[in-house]
Amino acid sequence: MEYIDARRAEIEQALAVILPPLPQCPQVVRDAMSYSLLAGGKRLRPILCLASADAVGARDRALALPAACAIELIHTYSLIHDDLPAMDNDTMRRGRPTLHVVAGEGMAILAGDGLLTQAFHHLASEPRSSDPAIIARKLQVIEMVAAAAGPIGMVGGQAMDLASVTPHPQGRTGLALDENGVRTMHSKKTGALIRVSASAGAIMGGGVPHQVAAIDDAAGEFGLAFQIVDDILDVEGVSASLGKTPGKDAASGKPTYPSMYGVDASRRMARECLDRAAIRLSAAGITDGPILSIGRWIVERSH
Length: 303
Ligand code: GRG
Prior knowledge:
The chain is mainly α. It is built from 15 helices and two strands. It has helices at about 1-15, 25-35, 45-55, 65-80, 100-105, 105-125, 130-150, 155-165, 180-205, 210-235, 240, 250, 255-260, 265-285, 290-300, and strands at about 90-95, 95. Strands 1-2 form a two-stranded antiparallel sheet. A hairpin with a 2-residue loop joins strand 1 (about 90-95) and strand 2. Helix 1 crosses helix 3, helix 2 (about 25-35) packs across helix 6 (about 105-125) and helix 9 (about 180-205) packs across helix 10. The protein is globular. Geranylgeranyl diphosphate binds near residues 42, 81, 189 and 243.
């Protein structure tokens, strides 16, 4: 779609110059960060961030670009760390060997640390402005992104996931997750960052609270749809669309949407997420526009 391609091009351009310059930043860690950051992800989260700024009628969509890019840095860090031998132990990501395979585990950990901290540096410094309204929006976004990425968000979800599949070092059995637990784990691990991508864009774009709340709820539905579709792709073994090794979730014995409800019902559930998102947005006066096409893009990955 034209809108998605145009936003992706803007994001790629901004990401290409986002890392700190040499020689202040040692080349070895810069190269490691670039390897994963510029490996051609879908850029779903930053595109959603920009579309959310547009959905609230932002006078300048570029106000949301720093938050969009910072969230992609955080997402990339999470993928690098998730792929490490101590976590998911994966060797392919974004169609390339994972960073620890090419640069070693130590450098992969540091590249992840560097991307995460650089994200907050970027959020605090951009867009440069002395306008108190813009400064207030930035502060609100920093707080929200930190919550979404940290222990009550993505880190917490990853910890639940890790504890559920890994025996405790002192011999206790792993955390047992029922359907509810799995839902909570996913909403933190992958949902929180998708959700904050949208709400940060809406805030930086100058959205009023009822618009931001609707966009946040709609993105919650997108996050759930994303997870359902990811589970479908995992059982169907569609490695090209996943960009990672398929079949791992099913093999780990963790409940997935297709294992709980079957593939057809899972597809229907993903579409229902979209319907609920559309209703929520329209109740806030957001009836058309690119934000919903991003939801459709998420769901259509499963076909
Ligand atoms: C290490 C703190 C920490 C967290 C890791 C997001 C995450 C938490 C792990 C990723 C594990 C995984 C592969 C989950 C499936 C869903 C997912 C996030 C897929 C990758 O996101 P995409 O499809 O990837 O947006 P691209 O490469 O397109 O950006």
